[in-house]
Amino acid sequence: MPSITPKEILKFLKSKGFYISRRSGGHMILHHNSDNSKRVTLPIHNKDLKPGTLSSILKQAGVDKKEVFK
Fold it and tell me: Residue 42 has what pLDDT?
């Protein structure tokens, strides 16, 4: 899986209808506009996301990996 920064994935999730609900320490909590039960926790730091963390974020968002890297 290619590397991606939290800033890039945040931009992608916003384009998919997510918004920043709140910030807690080094994490952002995002919710989806149409379905408030969809919640994504996104770590905010300057390093690339680890593959397992990225996979978990995409699973929480209900997004396929292929959509992110096209």
Answer: 96
pTM: 0.88
Nearest to 59 by CA among 33, 39, 34: 39
pLDDT in tens, 9-38: 999 999 999 999 999 899 999 999 887 788
Fold of 6-68: Metal Transport, Frataxin; Chain A (3.30.920)
Q: Is the dihedral of CA 34, 36, 40, 45 positive or negative?
A: positive
Q: Scanning the structure block, which residue is given the tokens 């974020």?
A: 57
Taking the C-alpha atoms of residue 32 and residue 49, their distance in angstroms, rounded to an integer, is 21
